[in-house]
């Protein structure tokens, strides 16, 4: 194996690495877009529910806060 062969192999590996990095970047962008879309849908559904059932939502939040406060109070003893 001479210097030219090593240079060619190095260049080949570099191209493969860059191609793999491009593929990974594209997949990461797809995952990010999907996660963003799902978060927006969840936020919209939550917003609609809260607007349709405001007092029920207040009750759930109050109950959750009470439970969390109760559990935290027991941990400090």
Describe the protein's architecture and organization.
The protein is mainly alpha-helical. It has one domain. It is 94% helix and 0% strand. It has 2 helices and no strands. Helix 1 (3-52) crosses helix 2 (54-75). The longest helix has 50 residues, at 3-52. The chain starts with a helix and ends with a helix. The model has no long low-confidence stretch (mean pLDDT 92).
In short:
The chain is mainly α. It has helices spanning 3-52, 54-75.
Shape: elongated
Which range best describes the helical content: under 10%, 10-25%, 25-40%, 40-55%, 55-70% or over 70%? Answer: over 70%
Look at the helices and sheets and give the structural class: mainly alpha
- Give the oligomer, counting copies of the same chain as homo and different chains as hetero: single chain
The mean pLDDT is 92
Rg is 27 Å
What's the number of domains? 1
User: Low-confidence spans: pLDDT under 50, at least 5 residues?
Assistant: none
Overall number of strands: 0
**CA-CA gap between termini:** 73 Å
Number of helices: 2
What is the makeup of the main sheet?
none
- Compressed to H and E, one letter per element, the order equals HH
Structure keywords:
elongated, single chain, 2 helices, 77 residues, mainly alpha
Secondary structure layout:
Layout: H1 3-52, H2 54-75
Helix pairs in contact: 1-2
């Amino acid at each position: 194996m001479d210097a030219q062969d090593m240079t060619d192999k190095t260049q080949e590996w570099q191209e493969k690495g860059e191609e793999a990095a491009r593929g990974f970047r594209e997949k990461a962008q797809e995952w990010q877009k999907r996660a963003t879309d799902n978060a927006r849908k969840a936020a919209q559904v939550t917003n609609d529910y809260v607007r349709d059932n405001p007092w029920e939502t207040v009750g759930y939040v109050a109950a959750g806060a009470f439970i969390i406060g109760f559990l935290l109070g027991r941990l400090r003893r």
